[in-house]
Every structure is written in structure tokens, then in C-alpha cells.
């Protein structure tokens, strides 16, 4: 899936009469913690993993500080139906807890909370409620979280407001995000809306505190040097839209720099964090999450293997009379069959002109025809997301023009692979791919000047992969244990200034790459990648060849 350095990388309604009959309970189902249910899979991350992650983060905190992380909000789909709940990746990484309306507090130095001394971590959870659980699924509750997730101190979320945490004693209060667009459930005095309000009140967060300033400073630190071409216009737009951003001296010094040297100087002159720090916690989490542990790699490997198998099976089943929706359905059927709970992101399945839309998600073309179909799809297995893209001809054979573009993208990816090794700059794979595509487009006559390459290759080549499809990371030189994507592409929409034979050809090839001590491992190598491999796979029979649904009248 394509990644923008400036933006981050979800999912039917019951009748009203039935809703009324539920004694005031919502008809939507918020998925509860799987650990609370019997007969669950046995290969989730062990509580010891999450405990270690918490301790590593706590050790990185400044002296006399406290860190606060909130569970993800519940999101409404329509009327009284919510989207299936998905936990904040940071929250899950540190706790393994998958329920909403919760808050995690980490203390640099041990505290006394609720009469318990020596507390360095406290999780406030939604309480058990048998009546609600009979409608919307089992809950762990505070005691279940303590027993199954091995948190040191747990309590119902109602206790957070009166927890006795001595907020005034901390020299710094750290947080990575304070949810601002949260619904207030009038029936629940300790939902996420109230947890956030209680935190702001107890910790004394100024009413004029603007997280946009902390976010912008973080973006400048991460991308100010490596992606100034995109970041500077974004800083300009945010400065015009947000007064606090326009008044921040650090942001404006970067904005006004005109050379790389001036930008480097502005970036290095980072102001000291104040008492309320919305950046440091995210930075430390990025360092931790960038390097995957063996347990994480095992789950990622499974997610990628499932996704690669999906690409194989779809290629066998492809034919011109299929719809984009049907192709999406085959991918996602394979995911569910192998135990993946979700897609890591909305599946991108675009045929012909739709394949030239970078984040096309409508997937409603009723007939593929003979144009190429671009399939950017990834399974999410126990929270970890794959991201594999393949482009194939529904007819089973590439046309000469299609093959020329495809082979150029393939050559660019091969060049990028060579840069996937410890110590390489994060941008090295992209630079290698960009050079190959630039040279190839010049040779084919699609562009007349190297500066025109962005018309047909407008995105970056790599992003981190993990609990987020666009995962956290530092964007420093590659290290063993890092997992990135390598995904060059060429997209030639109709009416482009080139020979019409190229129009509506969109090709992206994306693999998931584990950086090893000696180089790299292509985790998605099981998905056919070359023209010969794709055409040979498409010539094979499919388990769906004889699957015929009745015609609806």
C-alpha cells in the first residue's frame, strides 16, 4: 500500500424496531478481548512480550515523568451500528488489551496507587457487565486483565478519576495522542470521552494546548531533511490554517529555511520539551516498534504468507468476466480461511484506468476486461499487517506494451532490493528504483526529461510494516529486524502526453522485506512476481473454476 510521509497509513444495520427491543443496548457489536473467550487461537503474543515492551518504554522515559496512552475510540458507521473495533496499535503493543474505553499509565518511578505501593504501570479497563456482555461480547474486566495480561495494577475505568495519581509531582507528562473527536455516551460515566476529560483536568493540561504543534515538530524531525519537497508545502498550509503552528518559532524557522543547510540547522535547533510533551512518547515508541522481535516476525511472516497465497489463488481464478469486487472477495476469503481476522487496510483492486488511481478502494467495476488488474491487498494476522501488490492480465497473457512497463517496474524493484541491507539509508531503495524508472521511461519515450518522472511514478518506494500497515519507525539507516515494503510503480492514465498505446496501464509490484544481518529476506516471495511466473500461475486450474452461483433475476 502506498505511503505518504505526511499522512498516516475499518470497517449491517438492524431494524429500528429490533434496536428498541434491546433494552437500551446498542445493536452494534464492539469486539471484546479475545483472551476472555474460550477456544481462541493459541499463537497470540505472550503477555511477557507486552510486559517487556512496557518496561523498555518506561526505562526510556525522562526522570520524574509519567506517560499516558488511551485506547482507540469506538467509531460509528451509521445510526446505532459501529465499525468493528480496532485497538490503537501502540496500546495493543504495550498491553495486548483489545477493548475500548481504557487508559494505560506508566510511571518512571514507582508510585502508590489505590493503596498498592511500588506501582510502575496501571491499566484502567472497562468493567465486567454480564448483561451487556450477553449482547456485545465478553470483557476481561480489571481482574481478567491482571490475570491474563499480567499487568501490575489494574482497576475499572471508573476508578481513574479518583485514582490518587499525584499528577502535580511529575516534571513531565507525556502522551502520544489525546483523542479529540470522541462521542460521549451519556450512559457511561467512564467512557473514553470522560477518561480524556478526567486526564486533562487532573494533569492540568492547558485548555489552549494544541497537539498540532507537537505533531508538526515531530514531522520536521523525521522528514524535514529527507522529504523537504513534500513537507515544506504542508508546513505552509498548516501555518495558514492553525494559529498555534504559525506562532511556533521552531516550525517557522524550518518553514523559512531556503537551503538544505539552513533546514538542517533549523531541524537541529529543537526546543526542549515542556512539561506537557506530545512528541517524546511517540519518538520512543517509533524506536521500539521499528525493530521487530522474533515473536513479531513470526506473526508478520504468517500474515505475509497468507497474503502471498491469496495472490496465487486469485491469479489462478482471474478471467476477464470477473468483477473487481469478486477479486477482492477471493483475496479476503483466503485471508479468513487461514485465520487472519481482518485486512490490514482497505483492499485496492483496480482494473485498467482504476489501476492508475493510487489508493483506489471503490472496487466496483463489474467486468475486468483485458486490461491489467492491480491488486494491493494484505491480511492482518493477530494485529500484524502484510502489504503485497501484484499486477496481472485477466486474459492470462501480457500484451507487448503491458509487458514493457511491467518489466521496467520489475527491474526497478530488483535494483531497490540490492539496497535493502543494514546501514543503507532508508531512502536508498527508492533512489535506486527511481533511477531505473527514470532511465526506462526516457528510453521508451514516455518522458523527455528526467524531471518529468513524477508524472508516472509519483510516490515513495518503501514504508515500515508491522502493527500498522504504515508502521512506526525512525527513518534512520536500515537495521536488522526492520520490515519494510519495496513497491515501485508506473501509472499512465488516459490522455497522458504519450503514445495512446500506454494509456491506462498501471503497474505496481510490492514485496515485504525483512532486513537481516547480511542483507534481506523477501517474506512475500511466494507471490508470483515475474511475467513468466504470473502467466504460468494463471494457466493453472483454480479451486473456484467450478464454483457457479445462480443467476439473480
TrEMBL record:
<feature type="domain" description="Aminopeptidase P N-terminal">
    <location>
        <begin position="45"/>
        <end position="184"/>
    </location>
</feature>
<comment type="similarity">
    <text>Belongs to the peptidase M24B family.</text>
</comment>
<dbReference type="InterPro" id="IPR001131">
    <property type="entry name" value="Peptidase_M24B_aminopep-P_CS"/>
</dbReference>
<feature type="signal peptide">
    <location>
        <begin position="1"/>
        <end position="32"/>
    </location>
</feature>
<dbReference type="InterPro" id="IPR000994">
    <property type="entry name" value="Pept_M24"/>
</dbReference>
<dbReference type="GO" id="GO:0030145">
    <property type="term" value="F:manganese ion binding"/>
</dbReference>
<keyword id="KW-0732">Signal</keyword>
<dbReference type="Pfam" id="PF00557">
    <property type="entry name" value="Peptidase_M24"/>
</dbReference>
<keyword id="KW-0645">Protease</keyword>
<dbReference type="InterPro" id="IPR036005">
    <property type="entry name" value="Creatinase/aminopeptidase-like"/>
</dbReference>
<keyword id="KW-0482">Metalloprotease</keyword>
<keyword id="KW-0479">Metal-binding</keyword>
<dbReference type="GO" id="GO:0005829">
    <property type="term" value="C:cytosol"/>
</dbReference>
<keyword id="KW-0464">Manganese</keyword>
<protein>
    <recommendedName>
        <fullName>Xaa-Pro aminopeptidase</fullName>
        <ecNumber>3.4.11.9</ecNumber>
    </recommendedName>
</protein>
<dbReference type="InterPro" id="IPR029149">
    <property type="entry name" value="Creatin/AminoP/Spt16_N"/>
</dbReference>
<dbReference type="GO" id="GO:0070006">
    <property type="term" value="F:metalloaminopeptidase activity"/>
</dbReference>
<keyword id="KW-0378">Hydrolase</keyword>
<dbReference type="GO" id="GO:0006508">
    <property type="term" value="P:proteolysis"/>
</dbReference>
<dbReference type="InterPro" id="IPR052433">
    <property type="entry name" value="X-Pro_dipept-like"/>
</dbReference>
<dbReference type="InterPro" id="IPR007865">
    <property type="entry name" value="Aminopep_P_N"/>
</dbReference>
<dbReference type="Pfam" id="PF05195">
    <property type="entry name" value="AMP_N"/>
</dbReference>
